[in-house]
Amino acid sequence: MIRSYATAAARRSFRLKGPPLGLDHFIQRKRALALWRDIVRTIAAIPDQVTRNEMRQFARGEFEKHRDVNDIGHIRYLISSGKTEFDAIRSSLINANLLV
């Protein structure tokens, strides 16, 4: 019986990707996911299919490009600059009447 618990615990550890996150990494991950969700919601509101696809590809490419960044300072910078860039793009889409 004890052996089956040890086997189950060993299997669970294989699902984890790397060491556990620290509090700062956890908080920044939450902020990055919140930014991604905001971007996806805004993109979904764009009526033009071509523009919507281009925006989604651009956003996904930026997130994928920086996927393996581990430095907290760099992560904070990326989230901050991403929010600024996203706000600028969103306002330009509103000014161009592509987003209501």
Walk me through what this model shows:
- By secondary structure, the protein is mainly alpha-helical.
- It has one domain.
- Helix content is about 75%, strand content about 0%.
- It has 4 helices and no strands.
- It has helices spanning about 1-15, 25-45, 50-65, 70-95.
- α2 packs antiparallel against α3 and α2 (about 25-45) runs parallel beside α4 (about 70-95).
- It is elongated.
- The model has no long low-confidence stretch (mean pLDDT about 85).
List the main descriptive attributes of the protein structure presented here.
LYR motif-containing protein 2, Complex1_LYR_dom, elongated, mitochondrion, mainly alpha, Complex1_LYR_LYRM2, 4 helices, single chain, 100 residues, transit peptide
